[in-house]
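User: I'm curious whether this sequence folds into something compact or stays loose and floppy. Could you predict its structure so I can see for myself?
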Amino acid sequence: MATIPSHALRHLTLTRPWLRKIRCTTSLAFSSQDLLLTYPDDDNNNNNDTDHTKKTTNSKSQAFFPKKNQVLELECESLAFKGKGVCKVADSGFVLLCDNALPGERFIGRVSRKKGSYAEVTKLKTLSPHRDLVDAPCEYASYCGGCKTQNLSYEAQLRAKEQQVRELVIHVGKLSDKNSDFECIMKPIVPCDVQFHYRNKMEFSFGSQKWLPKELLHEKLDGNDNYALGLHAPGYFDKILNVDKCLLQSEPANKILATVQDNWKDPELGLSPYNVHSHTGFLKHLVLRTGRYFYFIV
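Assistant: Here's the prediction. I'll summarize afterward.
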């Protein structure tokens, strides 16, 4: 009897506890018959068995690890940290993470990046919407990367967060959910009465290149029209999504932001945004902080 070399199973090593929990629920499992191979004494049979073993291993690897740029039909099962949707390949259970995918949503996605124990997917088209669907209150929710779950009901957000904490307690804290002390430690999340306008500090960035959504890319921006004050576009350090308000900060802070937006591009002021490529320009950040009695602008 001989065992498969360790390098043939290198992709089964899971370094992330939360991924280990997800993978444990899949149907893919290697039995002892899969891991142990019998080699006859006959050399020809030995070679044939070796070739068969390689083909079997390769077929499993291809099914287990989707190729980069491969297009898949997926269904989001749960939420991971930072609002990423957790999906699994139907025939193997391999884990894929996708931005802007929410539990219950079926969609078409393309594999954009492969890692050791999971892959990242870019959503191309939604086939059926997720459960607990609500209208996002923010007009920038589809473009801004700050609030990824605004179109998910608050009750569903609480359930997702509680499940994440529960898995951390079990797999990182090493406390079994069958332990008598588990329920004493793992308490239900208490909902917050204030869901918006709760932050007392927000930082906005000035930029020389305004980021536009796909439906507005045909518009040509020249001069000051290409300047922006807002938040960094998802995945870009040099492009700014221009915003007039943010639902996270207080209403007085939003009024200050709107006033700055109306005046900072005035040519008479001679102010220009900082360019991260040429290292030119004057304005870099606008920091608004709300105190008990005062509002600070940096």
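Summary: The chain has six helices and twelve strands. Residues 1-14, 26-46, 52-62 have pLDDT under 50 and may be disordered.
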